[in-house]
Q: What sequence folds into this?
């Protein structure tokens, strides 16, 4: 039967998405200096909830020393729970599921952002970017502590009323750093072989589900976002990604979310290869993995785009920039109205876009 963008979809842990479109996680950089929720943040998300089946709140750090940028949102301490609750309540009252994306920046952090602390990672290999600081290698017992930090953050967002979390295994943050042969050069059980590099993301996923179950939330949604390929050498190739996903499929993940700028993306490593990454995925997915919904991303601006992506094989699509420009994006599609493609002067106030985000959106302005 042909899938429709307004069809419901049931997730394996028990919750239902009312349609196939979700608001993509997008960093707004407008939290308080300690990472707690501002009123602006609540207004911005509440304004955009209601149409999409779920709102995935932006990347949120799990550790006081794990920020990737200024104004980042945090779930690293209990005093943040009341603010996070305002956020979850605002989204849920409008009728969308509230999901929050969790990360640790690892080697993508800097001492300036993290109270002078040197960043940490799987190994002491600096990221390939200007001014990257060489991280300190985590000791084995610190890795166990890090897994617990993810669990503690999950407990906080459950107390705040979120329906689920998205583990941020993309954007070269810590989960990806453990899996990548570029950033992980360890020779203990946490590194070396692909099987060992998989151990950290696998243990985090297991622990998160265990935590939700212990807190009486067996239907808590757990998504996992991944970057399909890395340009670093050595780096993650698509075969590695399929190995990761085929194994994570055994750990009660509710959806896997591609991180890419276009849902029609092909390989960035082998640019002569014209096969869509989506088709590579569908060909290489195990029977178990095929049971788990996949969420595509990138470039959805209209009902035609969304339908084409779903008919190509994605089960759901996340929509980012179109939600910045059109807070009622999904409802516009439902009503057969044309969404806008650009922002114009004054939209920051009209569309409730916080100033730190507005200031970096020059590329979307007419
Ligand atoms: C301003 C901005 C902030 C973003 N922040 C995040 C983030 O916090 N986490 C993440 O996984 N992706 C982030 N992304 C990527 C989006 O989730 C999305 O995948 C991307 O924008 C492509 O989808 P689109 O064409 O619908 O915008 C961000 C994108 C934008 C434009």
A:
């Amino acid at each position: 039967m042909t899938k429709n963008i307004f069809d419901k979809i049931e997730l394996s842990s028990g919750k239902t998405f009312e349609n196939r479109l979700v608001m993509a996680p997008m960093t707004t950089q407008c939290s308080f200096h300690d990472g707690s929720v501002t009123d602006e943040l609540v207004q911005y998300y509440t304004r955009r909830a209601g149409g999409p089946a779920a709102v995935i709140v932006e990347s949120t750090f799990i550790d006081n020393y794990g920020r990737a940028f200024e104004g980042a949102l945090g779930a690293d301490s209990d005093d943040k729970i009341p603010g996070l609750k305002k956020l979850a309540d605002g989204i849920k009252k409008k009728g969308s599921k509230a999901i929050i994306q969790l990360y640790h920046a690892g080697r993508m952090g800097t001492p300036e952002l993290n109270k002078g602390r040197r960043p940490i990672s799987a190994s002491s290999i600096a990221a390939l970017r200007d001014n990257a600081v060489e991280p300190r290698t985590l000791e084995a017992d610190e890795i166990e502590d890090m897994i617990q930090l993810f669990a503690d953050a999950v407990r906080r967002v459950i107390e705040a009323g979120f329906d689920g979390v998205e583990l941020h295994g993309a954007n070269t943050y810590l989960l990806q750093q453990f899996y990548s042969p570029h950033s992980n050069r360890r020779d203990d059980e946490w590194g070396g072989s692909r099987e060992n590099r998989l151990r950290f993301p696998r243990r985090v996923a297991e622990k998160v589900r265990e935590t939700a179950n212990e807190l009486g939330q067996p239907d808590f949604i757990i998504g996992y976002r991944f970057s399909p390929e890395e340009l670093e050498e050595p780096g993650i190739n698509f075969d590695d990604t399929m190995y990761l996903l085929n194994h994570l499929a055994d750990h009660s993940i509710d959806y896997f979310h591609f991180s890419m700028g276009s849902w029609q993306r092909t390989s960035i490593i082998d640019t002569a290869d014209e096969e869509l990454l989506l088709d590579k995925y569908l060909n290489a997915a195990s029977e178990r993995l095929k049971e788990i919904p996949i969420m595509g991303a990138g470039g959805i601006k209209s009902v035609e785009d969304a339908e084409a992506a779903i008919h190509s094989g994605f089960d759901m699509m996340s929509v980012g920039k179109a939600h910045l420009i059109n807070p009622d994006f999904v409802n516009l599609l439902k009503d057969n109205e044309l969404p806008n493609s650009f922002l114009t002067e004054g939209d920051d106030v009209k569309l409730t876009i916080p100033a730190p985000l507005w200031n970096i959106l020059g590329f979307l302005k007419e």
